[in-house]
Specification:
Blueprint: E1 5-8, H1 10-17, H2 21-36, E2 42-46, E3 49-54, E4 57-64, E5 69-77, H3 81-90, H4 92-111
Parallel strand pairs: 1-5
Antiparallel strand pairs: 2-3, 3-4, 4-5
Amino acid sequence: MKEYKVFRSVAFQEEIAKYDKSIQDRVDKIEDKLMSNSKYGNPLGTEWFRESRFENYRVYYLIYEDLQAIYMVAISGKKDQQKTINTIRLFLEFFRGEIEKLVREKNARDEEP
């Protein structure tokens, strides 16, 4: 299976920073799993929009096969699950633009001597 680069949106990173260390560590483990298994977690209507659950939390991410990238975009509790999913769906174009920019920047850094 292909190895994917995993990125976190700014909003996701700011939200995760509010949680205690044990939750942050769980999110880090999910990120590690995603690098080698892009199909980790449960699909949310499509193969490219998925969630990974632990305790009462859900971590949401988008898979971009053409960029070999995964974009972690949100975390929520069970009670906010549908609202979070609907919000992510509204911002799909925005997320696409962000991830393309992040991948370009990463590739440029990797090519520097």
